[in-house]
# Entry
Amino acid sequence: MTNYHSPVMLNECIEALNIVPNGIYVDCTFGGGGHSKVIIKKLDESGHLFSFDCDEDAYKNALPNDNFTLVQANFRFLKKFLKLNGVLKVDGILADLGVSSHQFDSAERGFSFRFDNDLDMRMNQASDFSAKNVINTYSAEKLADVLFYYGDVRASRKLARTLIASRPIASTFELKNILQEFSKDEKLTTQVFQAIRIEVNDEMGALKEMLLQAAQILKPNGRLVVMSYHSVEDRIVKNFIKTNTFNGKPKKDLYGRFETSFKPINKKVIIPSDEEIKVNKRARSAKLRIAEKT
Ligand SMILES: C[S@@+](CC[C@H](N)C(=O)[O-])C[C@H]1O[C@@H](n2cnc3c(N)ncnc32)[C@H](O)[C@@H]1O
# Structure
């Protein structure tokens, strides 16, 4: 089997979790289990690790340990699935957002324009909403917003109109060809594929729901460790840690005090070392934020 995924900032994430051997931990994004494998090694038999992944392909990587549970679900349902397992509070939560190398490198999953395939991009193969739905059914305005907010596409309105005029668009190569005709800028294809993927999987919505639940289920001094690969994601995480809101505007409680649930552990965002980026190019956009539940 080719490498499913190389874990990014592995040591930094494990250290950030500040693991206590009998604690309960959550890895929201199991993938190839790169981070989970190290977390479980640090637990004793009374500790437990719950890992989530909505992609059934990740299941072949399940760990054999008795104190490990793999939940095939979206991490937006974190609290519900932990409760089903009798868990109300946890000691640490890790999320390594986005797609795995396995998903990106599997031609049939339709995430990459390196391969010609159905426009799919679903992380959860059981979902009935794919990239084809976004590209072929969204209004010009909605499509332009997706391209602008999740792909930083400058000419988003014009591009949305071009895409709508080219409908139906069924494959990755059809989309790539339209984009390459639209602009000589090679980055555009990457930006558009990324934007569509984020929309298909409602990545920002899931992240927000997970953060709200993390604030409810983490024990005092419990750690929240989030690694993101996109500026919008990182802004959501940063704002939430600082202000308990997603727009960064602090809210006051009934007594006029600013509401906070977390104390940031790193003031400056943590990025991978040059050495790590040299051996794993996909680590290059990673941004790590660590916070402690107050
Ligand atoms: C970047 S990879 C994680 C890699 C993992 N840390 C490792 O070292 O192997 C992200 C994984 O999280 C999963 N994922 C992304 N968003 C998710 C969500 N909202 N709910 C559940 N799983 C999600 C993806 O399917 C993918 O397998």
Notes: Residues 125-200 form a domain with the DNA polymerase; domain 1 fold (CATH 1.10.150.170).
